[in-house]
Amino acid sequence: MKYFIDQLQQKIEEKDSRICVGLDPHLNLLPEKVLAAELLEDLEANQKEIAAAVLTFNKNIIDAVADMTAVVKPQMAFYEKLGIPGMETLWQTMAYAKTKDLIVLLDGKRNDIGSTAGAYAEAYLENKKTEIDSITINPYLGSDGILPFLRNKERGAFALLRTSNPSAVELQDLKLADGRTVYQAVGDFLRDLGSDYLGECGYSNLAAVVGATYPKELKEIRAQLDSVFFLIPGFGAQGGGASDIKAGFDSYGRGAVVNSSRGINFAYRKEEYAHFGADNYAKAARAAAEKMKKEINEVLR
Ligand SMILES: O=C(O)c1cc(=O)[nH]c(=O)n1[C@@H]1O[C@H](COP(=O)(O)O)[C@@H](O)[C@H]1O
């Protein structure tokens, strides 16, 4: 039995790639060749066709980036909004990613009281038929809501620690009576809870999400938590760049993976990759993924 976090770190090193490709099918950004714009005029009536288009798009993106990423991260919201056909597309996308030997991180931000968290864990991390290696969770219900997600040591959980959005500061930066911020307290809590789930690589199966858009906090959190692996979203579309995420890694260039969703999926819409043309969106995505991979490796060298 190999711990989830060891599987992840090993695959990152094999591919020498610290990127995570988000699979967030923003419908209004899909190329016309894949999804005819008129179908979006009635989302409910056209759920089936739209979900089929999303699956085609995802498969082409996965084919284009499979050799240069260790992880893909589908965000559930984009599939849930397409009803049952959307959920089928989500599961088919994850199964397809597994055929390419990728690690699947399902972005669902799940959690609840202990007994319900247990049901989520059974649904996503303990069902032998699922193609999911890990899931994002919200840690704010405390340990009984988190521990069920750690029962299966071959799979892992990424708890929100310091998010990338502008309003992250509103609650996460509040000061506690002991002088720590809320996110620092959450960090200490996650490190302690995860210490019973350490893999051979020195990181825990209980990982954390820290946004690329707050480099100062990222640096501080890395110094605080040496056994917590980070998912760092916010690269590209939200403004984060390679120099911003550098401090999220340890001195060996380990311990983190950086997500980009729109910046890779819809690279064909950017001036830099426009020469590929909308029909070659997958080639544009590959070029953007390659650039991101290189930029991160260079900044860590
Ligand atoms: O948990 C996440 O993945 C997440 C946490 C966070 O703090 N910020 C954040 O952007 N995300 C997710 O990361 C992805 C970022 O997408 P892009 O901004 O298109 O690269 C989306 O799926 C977000 O839901």
UniProtKB/TrEMBL annotation:
Signal peptide: none
Domain Orotidine 5'-phosphate decarboxylase: 18-276
Keyword Lyase listed: yes
Active site: 109
Keyword list, A-Z: Decarboxylase, Lyase, Pyrimidine biosynthesis
Coiled coil regions in record: none
EC number: 4.1.1.23
Catalytic activity: orotidine 5'-phosphate + H(+) = UMP + CO2
InterPro entries: Aldolase_TIM (IPR013785), OMPdecase_AS (IPR018089), OMPdecase_type-2 (IPR011995), OMPdeCOase_dom (IPR001754), RibuloseP-bd_barrel (IPR011060)
Residues annotated as transmembrane: none
Matching PROSITE patterns: OMPDECASE
Listed GO biological process terms: 'de novo' pyrimidine nucleobase biosynthetic process; 'de novo' UMP biosynthetic process
Lyase among keywords: yes
NCBIfam families: pyrF_sub2 (TIGR02127)
Family: Belongs to the OMP decarboxylase family. Type 2 subfamily.
UniProt cross-references to HAMAP family, sorted A to Z: OMPdecase_type2
Full protein name: Orotidine 5'-phosphate decarboxylase
